[in-house]
Hints:
It comes from Micromonospora rubida. By secondary structure, this protein is of the alpha/beta class.
Amino acid sequence: MLATLAFVGFAALVVGLLHFYLWKRLVKDTTGPGRWRRIGAVAALVLALLVPATMIGTRAGLFWLAWPGYLWLALMFYLLVVLLVLEVPRLVARLVLRRRVVAAEPATAEPEPVLVGASGGAEPPAVAAIDQPDHDPDRRLLLARGAAIFAGLTATGVTGYGVRNAMGPPRLDRVRIPLAKLPRGMDGLRIATVSDIHLGPLRGRAHTERIVAMINRLDADLVAVVGDLVDGSVAELGEAAAPLRDLRSRYGSFFVTGNHEYYSGVEEWVQEVDRLGLRVLQNTRQEIRTPGGVLDLAGVNDVSAAGTGLAAPADFTAALGDRDPGRPVVLLAHQPVAAVEAAKFGVDLQLSGHTHGGQIVPFNLLVKLEQPVVSGLGEVDGTKVYVTNGAGFWGPPVRVGADPQVTLVELRTP
């Protein structure tokens, strides 16, 4: 309980400080005392409260909060990024102008003659006005307004582009991955791979239908749905997920849980996905027999399941132990970091999602601190890892620098 309260308090402090900084740069620095500054202060307070209201409200079914709340999160993020970047030239400009003022001052102070007035009193000498831009209120106001306008236009433009990108159709990528153990008769086996569909407050049935139609056009041998299908319960999103029953492939469609399934009622979703015709690989594997040979397709529960009490944690021994080491094995695991354990079992290829490719640049740099591969093909201790960007989004309906994606993975012999 104390840990939860501490986290909530820390989060509230961070949100408050961020909004105070935005108010300072966008309102206080650009306006004088009066009505507009008061309006700006009220707006900053309302937007600060909107952030926790969105996080809590959408989980409680108040989906109408999703669009304004998540859009503000994205806009706020890019406002912060641009304003923080502008702090550097702002500081440089102040230092340069200050040096110019110092250089304009006389090297030595010459004594000025004292003027004696008619009254016999001494009058102070006339002092030439020296332009000091660093202390000029008008110039400070002009620079502050220019920075605020630039930050606002840039953040709005980037966010608008990101919304269009996120809400548009996923990009189809094709990747060929050679596997040393793949039988020649299985050369060219194709796996349609999708992850992070994230059905929820902002994505519904039409999103699923578009993805299913896209995958079916590929005429794939296998379909792999690699976790984070939903952000809500079966009661809320069962209808939105229903088009998954129309997925077509030669040797079946398969699913593994992602971390968001564990926030959404994982037992019910496992049953629902199974009812829709996808085989749920929970720490198990399936032989894929084709006319050209046999391949092991394995799947593990999401690594974050450990300790949740909702389902068994990822068990690599159950999924990969006691198998024929001469066969190639493809592992479905939601998080790329699972490859650290998978490599110990000689996994040839792991298909993952989870990262969203970073979703919003420069978050991809932070994802690298947690995951060994952020997007595309990589390798972990000899195991090849392919990470798809995901077909949906989480939180802000924005994707910048990481397009939504469905991938057709083609396995090839060396």
